[in-house]
Amino acid sequence: MQAELALGGVAAKDRSAATLIARQTARRAVRSGAVWGYVFGAYLATQALAYASSYKTPASRARLAAEFGANAGISALVGPARDIQTVAGFTVWKCLAVLAVVGAVWGLLLGTKALRGEEDAGRWELLLAGQTTPRAAAGQALAGLGCGVVVLFSLTAVITVVVGHSSKVSIGPGGAIFLALAVVAAAAMFLAVGAFASQLAATRHQASAYAGGFLAVAYALRMVADSGTGLGWLRWASPLGWVEELHPLTGASPLALLPMVGLISVLSYFTLRLAGRRDLRASTFADRASAVPRTRLLSGPTGLNLRLARPGLTAWGVGIAAYGLVLGLVAKSAGSAISGSSSLTRAFSRLGAVGAEAYLAVAFLLMAILVSFVGAGQLSATRSEEAEGRLDNLLVRPVSRSRWYAGRLLVASAALIAGGLIAGIFAWLGAASQHSGVDFSSVLEAGLNVVPPGLCILGIGALVFGVAPRATTMATYGLLVWSFLVELVGSVVGLNHFVLDTSVFHQMAAAPAVAPDWVTGGALVGLGAAAALAGGVALRLRDLKSE
Amino acid sequence: MGVFAVRTEGLSKHYGAVHALHGLNLEVSQGEVVGYLGPNGAGKTTTIRLLLGLIRPTAGRAEIFGLDCERQLVDAHRHLAYVAGEASLWPSLTGAETLHLLARVQARRDDAYRDELISRFDLDPSKKVRAYSKGNRQKLILIAALMTRPALLLLDEPTSGLDPLMEQAFRLCVHEARERGQTVFLSSHILSEVEALCDRVGILRQGLLVEMGTLAEMRHLSALSVEATFAGEVPDLSRVPGVASLEVAGHVARCQVRGSIEPLLKVLAVAGVTELLSREPSLEELFLALYGAVDAGGAASDSALDHAG
Known about the structure:
The structure holds two protein chains of two kinds. Helix content of chain A is about 75%, strand content about 0%. Chain A is an all-alpha fold. The longest helix of chain B has 16 residues, at about 165-180.
């Protein structure tokens, strides 16, 4: 009997070991999928509800449709406007392309983290030493990632169905679920792209660059297809085009699911095949293992930080510039559409502005979030330096913790300020190209206006780093996502002002519609600086901590 | 007497109920090469991380060349270099870039000596760190530490992952460092390395320093090995005071002798010995004798702990 029990125990352990990688990957993917599921759901819900309450009359909706329906530039950027005189059509047009890109970035980063990041960190090696093969381990990781997508889809679908039930929105459950499916389809495809790129590249960084390059090509192809130049067929050459071809709520066409399933299947198959054939830490593409030394920045901890952060910060800079340009390009048309909505005009006239500036004021909230991500990312990298032991190399030499910490925060702060400036300059360039009549200095100020919330989040995150370093990444991104959700939901549903005040973005003036409130901005910066200072003191007193 | 290179007073580090290091009193003179031994989890790395200021002591204090390891940390670091047992470096930098950065941070450069070390350790500095094997990464941090010729080298299992040839190169570098008057504090599991390099040895157990001294001073911890070959029958040596672990094979007797060897010599002198070999215990035997005795829970445990106190 005892022997049987023992054998039973062994068998149970075997089963548990056989799914260890899948469970570990799933745990992280599900956590991330849950956060982004809420964000996706909240974004869809707020856009639908905002449209329903802002454009109440058929006349205001017709004017909006006339303004955007025939605009080739906007169509190229976010897809053609179909049935945007309806809540369903507007929600799809406003959300699908944006969330598809966000989901694609989420997917490719999660995919490369699970299938290359773990290998880079040396943890994969330990897992492969267990009862598994590289191929089976990759299969388990893919299964774990799949759980994350299921959670992302489920939460998005549940929120969309619930909001669709409201009489103002009135979207049926079937349509809502199909919309959720279309929204997360890009995330699923790019998870597979990230997993496949992880087999081609030598590092996670490289794998993310390959997958990001593929995303850029997919976006460019979809843009050309939607630019009204008779190249509509190109949409079928881009995974983002397939998402658009699903036409959720506007004549749903599930046929486009076929290439998606095909892409995911083919990439998963080759991911498993390559994972089974290549050596651990080896790449399919030849890796440039040697390089000519470039020592210009390598004179101290801050220079090193700049050198290491440069590729990531450049990518963020390009992203912010592109988004700023898009905002500027559509500002005039969008501003006119606002003028078509009596309730929006009333709301914005209270701010003291209408037209392009009013639109930019709302759009710059998203810009503030984007810029804040730059600071949060820098803080997360700061914690990684400590957790993975690289910081020891500096601190065992004549470098004080304070000097290193101040250098890190200096680079992060400079990146935030640069992000704000780039946002303002490129938004103005876009707006000026459309003769929107928007003043350069006011848009530049609007760009700088997004910096204080970012600095505040950076400072609070730095305090957490000083006091409880292992919670740094979770706390910083948590504060960012919380602030975003409160602001998003608060714009539609009347939230208690105590709740609204917990969002750092709620303290931001609606520039360029109104002049930035530099006193409040200064207070946000002051709060962040005080928190960062306290974090610096705590860092001096505590032990360095590994993961 | 000059300032000690390393000095600790009641240095302790507790993690809740776990005493990683308890009441360490240590003095390392300038120019000394000191070995630091102990099983895994004994507190060796904790000691070195406390000296480096990477972790803060629960009690006590430490000094490097008279500079307080908490209040004058940056000044103390100007005089030392550290090698960890596991090199964690920036994967996107090349070996040459890493060495350039670390030399600049240390504010001390000797490019000729750096190049000599690169050649001795047979390292290709044009490769990116991520392309190096574990052994090559270890070579890189060894070169980074040695190239600045610091007054104090804090080495925490520095040769892990190195092949025997490179270990020889490392030993040569430590010998040269000693000749130049540098102080070396070497934590290692390779007892032959410690025996070959160190003037004094400290042995830790469960966060306590249980022995500290030269190898000669520590011989009392273990017995002398004696092998005697007789012309005729082997006499009964089992009752000779101090003799233990007696083995007889033909005309040869092997045994361990604790304490004075005189009683045994008296017996052997009249028994017709044709050949007599005696050997002092190696560091490994000392180490095992100490830990064997302590783990057996015998009297050695108490005496060892008393000694540390």
